[in-house]
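Issue 218. Parser rejects a valid record. Input:
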Amino acid sequence: MLKTILCSLTLVVLGITLSANSIAQSCPLLPGCLDPTFGTGGKVTLPFPTSPGAGPMDIVILPDGKILELVYGNRFVRLNADGTLDQTFGAAGVANFAWPATSGQEANANGYAMRLQDVGVGLRIIVAGKRRLVSGRNFVDVLQMGRFMLDGGVDASFGTNGTVIINAASYANEIEIQTDGKIVMLDSAGKVVRTNANGSLDTGFGSGGIVNAAYNNDIAIDGNGGILVGGNFTTGNGKNTKMMMGLKRYTSGGALDTGFGIAGIASADFNAKSVTIGNVAIDPFGNIVVAGGVVAPGNGQWYFAAARFTSNGVADTSFGGTGKVKYVGASGMGARGVVIQADGKVVFTGALNADYGLVRYNYDGTLDTTFGNGGSVIEDVDLQDDVKTWTIQMDPGCACSKIVMSSYGIGGSALSFARFTAQ
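Output the parser choked on:
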């Protein structure tokens, strides 16, 4: 989440040029339309001041279709499935949670990533982020996580009064929960940290519960329990230097899986001088999709880019012919994330023209022209939308899937949501 890049007035999507004047589409209820059953015309805007550069951090959908958002500054916001604030949650839909200092040596803390954990007697909310420690005249960021009840209250049975601090890792960017309840986190320095369900370090993983993967963009858990870590690396030298999308897989014990890709690493070459990875996701058929952005040598422009690999880490050439797809726009553009539908269609999410933006591809990597306006959607919700989170929601009202995204307006004046039809 963490993956910046504002976008442009002109998109070239797999050779098809789309302009800002052609974003109108036949709505409602066709794929890519704003969902009129959500909020006001598919949009929700809350006067919810946030710190510039912060805003929404992560999003999950609860089993009853309610939407839970983690907001910078240690706050939860919960919406009903129709986009109205859930008045039964916290104070009129907003619950603050405190991560107070536990000694005179600790300063502030913030949550950055969130997932749901099944503890056998119900679901709990796991939040991972940072605790900033005071060290002399300097600060040191360490990993902190907390567990909360679905009503936003602290689960005191987790760690120490609901909180765990791991000094051996920096702050957590990403989090996933294994099927056995173990918690896997990725820190800003590229360390993969795994704890048991109760928050204690899993000493059977790596070295005392930690593996140094050196990649720090995103993580995912595959169907066999393998831990996938996305990042980038540089090859060549001088004028021949370029950056590659990289993906590593680790076993449940924390060893690099040398049967994956080439000696444990899969890579995608976009002939790019700069690469950012926004998301790693598993599709319904076990393939791995990595989405982000690349800058081609010479022109300084960002290309929206994605690669798909088989479960063995081999480029899936059934996707776009080479295992890769990309489109180009003006400077400052790339994919924040990816959501994958039950039919294998891939929806890339981000900010286009500083608005909500989506592009959908068919399973074979061709642009899905039935979605939005010839494959893409650009929607203005709030002034200069900076899209931060995204997910698929099964709407209980229709038993169909929807795409939910959230953003904050530049300047931190409001928190906004939008929901788009997907079927």
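Fixed in the parser; the record now loads. The mean pLDDT is 84.
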